[in-house]
Every structure is written in C-alpha cells, then in structure tokens.
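tool=predict chain=A
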Amino acid sequence: MRSRTLGILFFAHFVNDFYSLLLPIFIPVLVVQLGINYLDAGILVSAVSIIGAILQSPVGYWADLHKKRVTFIAAGFLFYALGTITLGLSNGFSLLLLSSFFIGLATTTYHPQSTNLITKEFAKKGQAMGVHGVGGQLGRFISPILIAWLISELKWRFAAVVLVFPALIATFLCWSALREPKERGDKGLTKAITLPVLLLVLILGLRGAVFQGIISFLPSFLVERGSSINIAGLLTGIMLGVGLIAQPLGGAMGDRVSKGKIIFLSLVGLTLLFFLFQLTLAQTSKGLMLNYKLIIALLVGIGFCIFVTFPVGLALSAELTPGERVGTSVGVVFGGGMIFPAVSLPGVGYLIDNYGFHTGFIFLGILAVVATLISAIYLRLGLK
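tool=predict ok
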C-alpha cells in the first residue's frame, strides 16, 4: 500500500511540477505574438505566487480539518487544465492573467496534502520526500524541453491545447486510486505559526524568489542573446534536471543530520555560484559570445544547491508544528514562501525592461545573500 501511494504521488508530483514551467517557457513567444513586456511577464508569474501565498495555508488547514486531502489534490489538476486552455485562447493580457489565476489555484492544492499523505505512511520522512521529489524534478526537467519543442513544432496555441492532457490523466488517477487518511486535522490555524515556522518561511521564500526569477527569465535572456527556443528550454531543463540527484540526496541527508545545516550550507553555495553567474552575464553584456560550457556548469551547481533543500524544507515544516497540523504547517511554509516570488518577480521584470538582464539577476543574487544570513540566524538560535 505504501509503495502504491508513493508511486501515484510520484506521478502526480511529476505532473504538478511540470506545469510550474508552463508560463516561463511561453513568455518569449507571448512577448513576440501578443506584445507583452517583461513587466507584464513578471506580473503573470507573480499572480500565480500571490494566489498560492494567500490560499495555500487555508486550503491545507481546511483539507486536514474536513478530510478532503485527496479531493483537493485531484481538483487542483483540473485547475491546471483550465489554466492551460485559457493560455491557448488568450489574445491579450487579460486572458493571460486569468490563466495565471487558474494555475495559481492549482498550486494551492498539492504540496501540503501530498506531504501529509507521505509523512503519515513513512517513518523515514526525508527519504520518502526525496523519492517523491524526484517525480517533481522529472516534471521540471522534461517541462522546458517538451514545451519548447511543442511550441517550435506546432502553433503555440495548439501546443497549449496538447498540454491539457497530463492534468486530466493526473486528475483521474489521483481521484480513483489515492486513499484519504483517517486522521482529522486539529483546529487552530494560527497554532501552526511559530517562530521556527516564520523563519523557515523567510528562508525558503527568499530561496524561492531566486529560483523563480531564474526559471522565469533565463529562457528569455538566452533567446535575446541569440539562442533558439529549443536551446533555451534545454539549458533550463539541465539546471532543473540536477534535482533528480539533489532531491533524494537531500532527503536522505535530512534524516541523518540537521536539516537546518543542510539548508544553510546549500544557501552559501547558491550565493557564491550565483555571483559567478553574474560575472558570466556581465561578460556577455559587453558583446562577447555566450560561454555555454561555463553557463551549464554554473547552472548545474545552482540547481543542486536549490533542489537539495526541497525535500528537507518540506520534511522540516511537517515537524515544526505540534498536533495533527501537517497540511496546515506545510501550507504556511509553502504558501508563505510564495509571497517573495510574488513580490520580487514584477520588480525583476521592471529592472530587465529598464536596465537589462544583468541588473535583474544581480537583484536575485542579493536575495540569496539575505536568505543565507537568515538561515545563519536560524542555526544560531539552536532550532532544528
């Protein structure tokens, strides 16, 4: 029963995270075909994060309290389908924003509920979350490559229609095969908000802002520098593919050593590698050709530092709140963390529009520094 549950959630996580790259890969096409600018693009991606930030913890709390975890997981994939169809029908910013709204609703339903199901089934939570994370990482890895290929081979609107089907398959599979846990969530949404949880929200939120900024604007940067949409998708996919190793490794390490230390060390690495990435971009801004080998090496390192913390952060958030509040706690951490990408992405888009990609990416590097400092404070306080 455990292996079946993990297998289904592995596939569901694959599909869920596959859609996280939908808008970023379409952005270069939407800029050309519909005339949006990078500020608009930042708002579209930010809208997804805003909805997730507002609704993630209430949805997790309500699903726990009323034992509707499986129902919410399945319904979320229907919202992904609606968002994708709306994207394909869009003729301007308004419908694109509606697409972001549907996708944002979808993002609120998966991680708190799936983390709850997994942590109830497995004693080694980090290891199970690492395996589960591989499913999501496969989705992120394949997503930019497949979506870019569909856009290049088909008309972009038809590509969007084709991309509806994974969500429909996941809806049926989750609804028919997952079992709702017997435990009912404890009342008291605010009891899930503790000092360790708030610090974790800040740390993972800033890390998420850096991650979302990279994947949202890296494809557009590469296309502007002369890469094809396929090359841009491939390079983004390479960075995301590193998580296939980093997530299970991080999950296994999290069961053996301090999860807080893993997060701190990964953020130190992220900060150093990202500023090396800035230097590389600075050279290309001076008219030099893209050094693809160096860019790939840096993206591999950045991807590893980001994704090694994904299962660790989810497992840690499930441990930080007393009582039957796993979905609520994960919802607070995951949803609260989405505030930072929501706020930062329009700003990054504005910086890119007015000062160039290099300036926009420098801002993301500063956010990585702040996340590292807060994680040092977390360890200094002697928290998990």
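The chain is about 80% helix and 0% strand. The two ends are 31 Å apart (CA to CA).
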